[in-house]
Structures are given as structure tokens and as C-alpha cells.
Design a protein that fits this description.
Elements: H1 6-11, H2 21-44, H3 47-66, H4 73-98, H5 102-124, H6 135-162, H7 167-177, H8 179-187, H9 192-215, H10 227-259
Helix pairs in contact: 2-3, 2-4, 2-9, 2-10, 3-4, 4-6, 5-6, 6-7, 6-9, 7-9, 8-9, 9-10
């Protein structure tokens, strides 16, 4: 059991961001960055070294995030970016090394995510990002995030490669699918937590398909810009988005302090 009382928990700062419009833009950029950076790193260094480096950076970022105990935009989004890189590598390794079909890995990661949600709910009785105020809840949150990235990667590869749709049709497919939770929440009174996590999963294959389309060679159905350049472009985009977000967060906290 957590040592925090209910009153302490309610007063503790939320450790992750609200799902605003800026959040979704940053999330989409992070998924594209993760896909491109993973492809680039595996191409320019031995795959084993790339995976180990990706895991080390992910572990470092997560440790940094967990010690903040409140939402710090730069730290949070660096962690998400590292989840994107390592999550992509992990999903690809399972497919390439073990030879499992994309349909199998997609179902397997969906089961893992469902297991994380079930354990999270049974332990904390909430899956809301607005209630991530303790270390235990944040650990569940990041476990879910990692699982969504792996699931999204597998689902995106299943659509583009496994089902032979190609990158552009996959982009269109996931762009339409991501409208479902948005419309459901906005107009059909869907549960907000359900809508959030469905959209969170779908941003991964959408961003990854866009990154693959831009970065992959023309012979493979891409534009041929190169994964390194695409990773750099989305990294710059993330820096700009996160810097703007951090400025707004500082302004809100300054006003809240002044009001007190």
C-alpha cells in the first residue's frame, strides 16, 4: 500500500501532462522521431549495440523522470522520445530475431497492454492520467506507455508490410482511425480515459508510418529522404514544441504562485 494518505495524494502534483492539443502534436512528433531514430541507429551501428544503447538511454531517461516528482516538460518528453526509440527496437527485434509474424506480435503486445491496465486498475482503481501523483502510479503509467509504443509499432508494420498496404494508405488508415476516439469523446460521450488510451495507441502507427514513408528508399515505397534526416527534423520539431510547452507551464505556475 502507498504511504500517502488520500489527502496527500490529492494535493501532490500531477507528474504527467494533460492531453491538450499541444500534447498530441508532441506525441505524434515523438513517435515519428522514435521510428526514424531507431531505423537510423540500427543501420549505422551493429544492431546489438544499437539496442543496448537504446535501452541504456531509455533507462536513464526514465530514472530522471521518476526523480522529478512533478511534470517537467523537457524531462517528460525526452523520456517519451527514448521510449519511442527503444520501443521500436524491441518490437523489431521480436519480429526479426524470433521470426514472429506482425499479426502475432500485434496480438501479443495488445495482451501485454491489457495486462498492464488490468493490474493498474486492480491496484489503484483508476487509469486516469490526471491522477498520476505517486511513484507507483507513474510506474504503471510508463509501463502502459512502453506497451502502447510496442503495440503501435507492430500494428503499423502489420498494416504497411504484413497486409501490403504500403506507407501512404497506412497513414490514411490510422489518420481515420484516430478520429474515432476523438469523435467518440467529443460527441458520443465516450469515457475520457478509454478515448485517451485508444488515441495514444493509434498515434504510434500514424507517426511511424509517416516517418517510414518519408525516410525509406523509393524502392521500398518511401520518399527516400533518409531516416537520419527525418530523425533530425522531428527532433528539432520536438525541441520547439517542448520549449513552447515549458514556457506555458512556467507561466501558469508563476501565476498560481502569485495568486497564493
Amino acid at each position: 500500500m502507498s504511504s500517502m494518505t488520500t489527502a496527500d495524494r490529492r494535493q501532490a502534483p500531477v507528474r504527467v501532462p494533460d492531453p491538450t492539443a499541444g500534447f498530441w502534436v508532441a506525441k505524434a512528433a515523438s513517435t515519428a522521431f522514435g521510428e526514424a531514430a531507431s531505423d537510423f541507429s540500427i543501420r549505422v551501428m551493429p544492431p546489438v549495440v544499437a539496442v543496448l544503447l537504446g535501452f541504456a538511454l531509455f533507462a536513464l531517461a526514465l530514472g530522471w523522470q521518476l526523480t522529478r516528482r512533478r511534470y517537467v516538460p523537457g524531462v517528460y518528453w525526452f523520456t517519451v522520445a527514448m521510449v519511442g526509440v527503444f520501443g521500436t527496437m524491441a518490437a523489431d527485434v521480436v519480429h526479426v530475431v524470433l521470426g514472429l509474424p506482425y499479426a502475432v506480435t500485434t496480438v501479443a503486445y495488445a495482451a501485454v497492454l491489457a495486462g498492464v491496465f488490468l493490474l493498474w486498475w486492480r491496484t489503484e482503481r483508476t487509469l486516469s492520467v490526471h491522477e498520476v501523483r505517486t511513484t507507483r502510479r507513474e510506474l504503471f503509467y510508463w509501463a502502459a506507455v512502453v506497451a502502447t509504443f510496442a503495440l503501435g509499432t507492430a500494428a503499423g508494420d502489420l498494416a504497411a508490410v504484413g497486409l501490403h498496404l504500403g506507407y501512404v494508405p497506412s497513414i490514411l488508415l490510422f489518420a481515420v482511425l484516430i478520429l474515432v476516439p476523438a469523435v467518440g469523446y467529443r460527441f458520443l460521450r465516450w469515457n475520457g480515459i478509454l478515448a485517451f488510451w485508444v488515441a495514444y495507441v493509434l498515434t504510434r502507427p500514424l507517426g511511424a508510418s509517416a516517418a517510414d514513408w518519408l525516410g525509406k528508399p523509393v524502392a521500398e515505397g518511401g520518399v527516400g529522404v533518409g531516416s537520419g534526416w527525418i530523425a533530425l527534423a522531428f527532433a528539432v520539431a520536438m525541441v520547439v514544441i517542448v520549449a513552447a510547452t515549458a514556457s506555458r507551464v512556467r507561466s501558469r505556475r508563476a501565476l498560481a504562485t502569485f495568486a497564493e
